[in-house]
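To assess whether the prediction recovers the assembly geometry, we first specified each molecular entity separately, as shown.
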Amino acid sequence: MEMHPWLPNLGDLREMLKEIGVKDVEELFSDVPKEIVLKRELNVGYGRPLSEYEIARRLEELSERNAKLLYPPFLGGGVCPHYVPYAVKMIVSRSEFYTAYTPYQPEANQGLLQALFEYQSYMAELLQMEVVNSSLYDWAGALAEAILMANRINGKRKVLVPANANPNHLKVAETWARGKGIELVKVKYNEEGKIDVEDLERKLTDDVGAVYLQTPNFFGVFETEVEGVVELARKRGALTIMGVNPLALALIKPPGEYDVDIAIGDAQELGIPLSMGGPSLGVFATRWDAKLVRQMPGRIVGLTKDSFGKEGFTLILQTREQFARREKATSNITTNEALMAIAVAVYLSLLGRNGLKELAEEVYLRSHYATKSVESRGIGKRKFLGDFFEEVTLTFPVEYQRIHEKLLKAGLHGGLRIDDYSAVFCFTEVHPKKAIDLLVDKVEKVVKGVETS
Amino acid sequence: MWRQAKWDEPLIFEYKGKGRRGMLIPREDEIRKEVNVSLPNKIRRKREAELPELSELEAVRHYIRLSQMSFGVDTGMMPLGSCTMKYNPKVEEMSQSLVENLHPLQDVSTVQGALEMLYEMQEWIAEVTGMDKCSFQVPAGSAGELAGVLMIKKYHEEKGRRRDEMLVADTAHGTNPASASMAGFKVVYIKSNNRGLVNLDILKEVVNENVAGFMLTNPNTLGLFEEEILEISKVIHSVDGMLYYDGANLNGILGVARPGDMGFDVVHVNLHKTFAVPHGGGGPGAGAICAKGEMAEYLPYPIVQKSGKGYSLYYPKKSIGKISTFFGNVGNVARAYTYILGLGPQGVSAVGKMSTVATNYLISRLRGIRGLELPFPGKYRKHEVVFSAKPLMNDTGVTAFDVAKALLDRGFYAPTIYFPPIVEEALMIEPTETETRETLDKFANALKEILAEAYSDPKKISGTPLNASVGRLDQVTANHPTTVTPTYLVKKLREENKIGALR
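The predicted structure of the complete assembly is given in tokenized form:
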């Protein structure tokens, strides 16, 4: 192959081989059985190295095949569209951060470690939980790890999960838990869209190792009986896992005040672009209890002193991890979502205490405004009566799929269909009043049979 | 002399400003006027979260300073063994425009461009691994391992068998046994022989109808190619066990040999290693999990397929389900996509060769150096090499840990140390194909200098680093139950005497 900017030694190959003392590259692979040595080039890419200009053209070509929408989709279901400020983008583009590895040599990575410690601290303050790890893959991964952790602590193989939790999270948790033979038992929800506490109590037998609760839940509805659920679970010797949207925590009571054992969630909404769902950021926190902390999955950054007595940061409690404990580790995770954790820390540092509250209020109001518009025009109504945040489940008198297709034709992407007549919508600061009004207008036309193209 | 930035940068929570902010929220005052709702009192947060209040400039300076006290591949050579810290070409960042604003639940008709990219990548990764199908469900390597062992478990279950043992090489990455254990398997280690390779005699003895599979990386973590791989494959397959390939070391043979041709059935690939997605200080990475033959029907979903006029999603019949919420780390798959476009088939095919040349060149530069020993000599290494600093420790008291810190002082990141566990005082070096010969020479010289100094003045080496942002960090204080401080909240509570030791 000719010279390539990313493979600098192609031109020095002969001298390097001479220094090694071999006649050709093949000699270095003489231990590879002949029959498996590949005798051709790999069939990848487009026949030759593309120049940067050509790569850019190819990306443009592909981008043009994605639909152009007038506004970000009115879609939640685990991640919601939000605006990411340039300052966040610039800082996570600092290559000292994004080309770094896990800070195994803390002296050379103080900045990275401090930024991760600050992320943990931001989350601790929002959640009011003392210990936060420096990220897991996503909400679902965090739920799966919490379930496995509960199993390590009490050995029980049954976990109660609410039927109003995000179904994709439950699917992931099910996959991860199957290996250990852990069974996920679904608890019903009531007509308000909230967990059915009586059903939960019925199913809360002594062989239940953990109880999960999500608020706001998949339908966007706030759970209001958390205290009761935590008390019931504790009485029966089950650990409590609470899933929360960190943005909502500017307004609602944090998991720490309910004294839950494990809090999880996804911080994607705080400074991470959608990227088709990944990378995201799984949040994982526990109470100040060694029994929990020593079973916690993932990496944790802690404060310490250096040899000159100066404050510094390092990875802590690493004896739990896979390289030290191998099959007895608390988790197999090594690569996490560290850079996304930094993005979240920067985002929160920009918002500050008032900004976060204001954003959460704005989002809360917009979802209520959209609902009010739909209901006051008589073209649909809330499926559940519980109060909601950011996301809301709306039911229409015509099949939602029809509405959805008309919206798409108008350049709007509606909500997530959950049954023939209902969909969950998400409204945030990237959906201005104009956008919400347009959406409602279009829906009205379909519902009232005055369809336009 | 190399020096790192030293800012006495306070914790962001210690910034004193009040009422400042770094961002304006888009407001719709008309909505505020029209909607009159308030949260039920019962669930309302009583005490506000105490977040610091900074202007945009303050926040930016704070994090820029922190970035300056960090070390990445763009800062200097990072010869971390088994981590493959290669250059991350800048053009990769351009790929974000393709997926940045796409919601994962959008109608497939609206994301055809992104799906086309994912489909091509599935095909390309299947080609480089010699597998039939790939799924990008796995956000990183260890998730790939979990998916892989769950697939193997389900495969046996569907055949009506209960197999509860997973074989793991003793040179394996710690993730292998951890993943096998998460999937409910009993881990059985296969000892290496006196050539640093899987001991075939032991393997033959251990393999029986209880064995579900064997997790192996090739080249192994000593940088050695498992030359008896075809025999190993035969032994495992003789009981219908599955051979699992840990793709962490794929870089060493990329374009030279494919796991599929060696007899592997399930493979994970770390796109953040072999395909140059930046590591992000620990993540996000991205992965692929690929399989051959019958095993492909067990892959986690969704998988992108080409159908008629466009791309749609495919859910394999016997799939183990979902490993991550949506499509995996699509943003990073797009980065790897541009990397492959840029290298082209010729470049991708040269990766294994050039990383192997770089490693053996470095070995030849370090040959005979006093204090280091090369275990299992007389063999060519692939992408990485493990030295033992045991002679150095015996002679001078200076450890592999000390050598690592001394390297930091000379502008190099340290190699992986104390891994694999079968080598004492291990220093595991992986130079990759993207470092120039001059850099390899400088690294070798720095290491030689450190070893020579250790023999003349051992105290000087054990006092390092002096040129990094801070001196050696106290691990006892960091981990002690009475001083362990994982968050600012704990720091505050401890200062107010409101929490005790972590017991």
